[in-house]
Amino acid sequence: MACALLAGARAAKSEQEKSRPQRQPVTAERYEIEVSFQPEKSFLHARAGVTLRADPSLEAIAFELNPHLQILEVTDGQGRKLEFKRSGRLGSPKLSVRLAEPVGTRRAITLTFSYEGTLPVRSLDYITKDGILLRDESRWYPAVDLAAFTQNEFHIGIPSRWRAITSGAPVSSVGSGLGATYNWKTWQPVSSRSIVALPDEQQRCVPEPLKKDGYSEIQRGSACFIGPQQDSGMRLAARVHELLDRYKDLFGPYRHSETLVVAGFPGQRGAIGYSAPGFLVVSEDAVKFFDYPGYAPEFLPHEIAHQWFPIEVTLASQEDGWLAESLAEYLAWRYLEETDPEQARRMAARAMRDALAPEPLPPLGLGLRLFALENWEVTHATLYQRGLLVWRTLETVIDRERVDLALREYYRRYAGRSASIADFRKICEEISGRELGWFFDYFLSGTRIPEIEFRRTPAMAPNEVAGEIILHNVPPDFQVRVEMRLETTAGPIEHSVATRGEVTAFTATSKNPVTRIALDPDLRILRWTEAARRNRSQRALLAAAGGFESKDELVRATDACQKALALDQENLARNEQQIRFELGRLYYRMKEYAHASQQFAGVLELGSLDPMGTDFHRAWARVYRARIEKLRGHPAAARAEAQAGLAKRSPALETQVALPEAGGHATTAAAELRALTQEEEIPRRR
Ligand SMILES: [Zn+2]
Fold it and tell me: How far, in Å, is the centroid of ligand 1 from the Cα of 384?
């Protein structure tokens, strides 16, 4: 795709895709694990005892364990070696352990697995010389349910001067020659067995630890940062502390005495996060840029929301993902609405546009299964963006105060357990006194999207405005509150109408003539908007545009870009900057430098709904403008362009991209701009 709307300007991603139980009459209650790591070899050796409660008639138990780990032995509580069988399917983590005898009346049994192996390094699960992260999803321990609530006692062996962290509380650490062992223990069941470790770094906490008789004591409720970037890390810890307080007030108590924020994902760019009970692993960029205006502002409030949902109230099934990712995104939006309304507005506007881009729209009720079924773009548009909009729409059905009450009750009732969307629906119904099946059926199971229209009808009185609000694509029991803004010659009047079914008549009064009526001006309801429609048509057009290779392809792509621009002359979808950027690249490729320059000048003037995307395209427009000046034999002008580009110190300058015309190798706008400022000096030296 030469003229595409999928440029690599994305600033952030976050993951919390914990998959869910195989249904079997077994629950894990306790883990006692000794694990030792050889980071430079990506190797681990472990002995894991798991205590299970099982159905008395059970003769074999199904587990999952990463297929790269070789099982040396499985024994039961009496020390008997048990037969086990790995799944015959390549790459499958499944295995079955045959018990020496049925569980019988004992109910609780303990099996001990010895295993070892080299795990391939992945972006979210890795054992490397720069750090270790093993999420539950890595299946580094034998599991019957990756989100089970268990009591754990871990002994983690790592090189000396490293530090290991897991859920619970550190009991002790022992150094022995070249290695160290960190001992951790939980005081109440936790829903994860993830481990993170890193070459030892300082720790700083907010609030400051209390000094007591020569030692310092970390205060309860602290947020502590562990990692190399101590200054921004400290500011980030302060923000985490603030968010924890906020969510405590909203939902109820947080069960961990402190929250550790740990530097992880070495060498990876962008804002990446992983939340586990009592700790959060963040990438270098997420620390470095966290308070840069417009850089992934939803990232931290989203990650910290996970400490409540789904870490304390886990999901009953993958299909309940709306109660995890969508909810965290909604809570992040709520936080921004209070602290940075402009970012909140952009976040909602982006969601309203992009949530409806996938064609066809997958049901939101697929939940976490979307991660496996769709690419990241579609999953993000659906589970994160559309999911957020469904939460906001729920506010227009039962109102925000009741949404907050429902979440509080949901947490009170289910903390330490799993729950489903049906459980949450029941709470909403209790609190609102209304039957809400239609809402969940329509927005979570279905894929229809409402469209709201307004028809003015003759008024009965001189000061009256009368009309009908018409909702398309909705069932008869559909009810929302639609806000209206009546623009009058004496200023706007806010009005709201509770609709029922397809057509709802309304009247409002205004002393002054009404010049314009805006329906749902703050985009509170998930619905089709003109921006979403135009965005969808533009994408379809550009996706069909073809390649970047032959002259024919370039001409076709240019044509597609021009048509896409013509589809949205008012720039309602806010895609113009990106399309002009692609158009500029195409002209540049065709050596039509005057046309290219003109497009890049437009890119410098225009903005988008994503501040990092805006900066990214402006920076690259400077790169091309400098290249064009150079080709025209104007080295001073080229240098001036490059310097103007570098003057904006946005994180977007560090976004890695591989553009085909640059030989496809990964580079950043900053690197290209720096090279362009330096090239200038070569002729001068001669
Ligand atoms: Zn998440």
Answer: 8
